[in-house]
Amino acid sequence: MEFKFSISEEVIQKVAREFAEKEVAPLAEEIDKEGKYPFETFDKMAKMGYTGIGVPEEYGGSGGDDVTKAIVVSEIAKKCGATAAILSIHHVFVQCILKFGTEEQKQKYLPFVTSGGMKTAFALTEPNAGSDAAKVQTTAVLDGNEYVINGTKCFITGGNLADYVVLFASTDTSKGVKGLSAIVVPKGTPGFSIGKIENKMGIRASNTAELIFDNCRVPKENLVGKEGHGFKIAMILLDGARIGIAAQALGIAEGALEEAVSYMKERVQFGKPIAEFQGLQWYIAEMATKIECAKWMIYRAATLKINGQPFSKEAAMAKLFASETASFVANKALQIHGGYGYMKDYSLERMVRDAKITEIYEGTSEIHKVVISRAVLG
Ligand code: COS
């Protein structure tokens, strides 16, 4: 058992850290304030190979695995939770095609998507199907060689910008959850329109949109996997995606801890740096301990996944713990900054807002407790 990165993982971490400091950090405040999608940063991430992590080179990918992905996402999240969210969720579409697509679909989508030339989205959630994801009401009825899609998806990250959306719809309403299927819908398909763009508390630069399908027709070859396998596909993808969101949470927590440590050494009150006060030292101890736990839970879940072992429970545990750690650490770091932490001049209030979503999306903390307890109880 080796609790350390390999030399190449250390190099990837160092390069990602430098990238985040140089390319991500300078824009974080502005894109948060304006809710502006970081197009240029996305392109730069693509040039670095980050949009193609985990994909073989034959499909335009840059290789690497789930550990690599978690390292990169967490380094980016240290500086900007929204940019990390964009990258992490981009990988869900990529994994959908890589894992469940036909050879033709892989050739058709992956090179464009992994190069960053095309943006993507994963559309599962609906107004009445959030935590209860099986209750998807969107339908896709086969008519000749086309699916006719009707329904509304909500809270879809990047949905308004995506060139390709993979959506989950019922191709057979009589079969309930076993009637759900995964279908790719390209941007601009007649009958596919963008509804409300959400005004969010955090990760404001990652646009979140409502997608409306009104007699939207797509060729039947856009089906990913088999008809009726959609729910399983979504669940398997979410298991992997939860490692990505846990990594995003870890990065936010690490970034907040770094800010707290440097502030405590500089800030003088009662004649000495506040780092010398035991009450605050204990905050730091708790923050660092939780981060250390979250880190190894994430890399363990990622390693199980890479080795083809069951990892659903471990991914849920990592996501649950890392996301609650992100909120805990960001809040404590803000508290350590006192009144300054509450001001927008410092990044702590953004980190607190960005951390919160990690406890909600890709499955709430409560849903993770369902997944974990089911696995433990059998
Ligand atoms: N991997 C593979 N298959 C899975 C699975 C997983 N992780 N989880 C469930 N399944 C399968 C089950 O095995 C079952 O298939 P069989 O009947 O063939 O055995 C089927 O899916 C239905 O499973 P289950 O009965 O457990 O489904 P539930 O409706 O009880 O829902 C939860 C399970 C709560 C875990 C699921 O709805 C969920 O993850 N909800 C949160 C959704 C979410 O994360 N949304 C965020 C979207 S992106 S922001």
Helix/strand layout:
Elements: H1 7-34, H2 39-47, H3 66-79, H4 81-100, H5 103-114, E1 120-123, E2 139-143, E3 146-157, E4 164-170, E5 180-186, E6 192-197, E7 208-219, E8 223-224, H6 230-266, E9 268-269, E10 272-273, H7 278-306, H8 312-336, H9 338-342, H10 348-358, H11 365-377
Helix pairs in contact: 1-3, 3-4, 3-6, 4-6, 6-7, 6-8, 6-10, 7-8, 8-10, 8-11
Bound molecules: coenzyme a persulfide.
* SSE run: HHHHHEEEEEEEEHEEHHHHH
**Continuous helix count:** 11
Overall 3D shape: globular
Structural class: alpha+beta
Strand order of the largest sheet: 1-4-5-8
What small ligands are held by the chains? coenzyme a persulfide
- Poorly predicted tracts of residues: none
How many whole angstroms does the radius of gyration measure?
A: 21 Å
Count of DSSP E strands? Answer: 10
**Largest sheet, if any?**
4 strands, mixed
Distance between the termini: 27 Å
Q: Strand portion, in percent? A: 15-25%
Q: Overall mean pLDDT score?
A: 97
Question: What is the gist of this entry?
Answer:
This protein has 378 residues and is an alpha+beta fold.
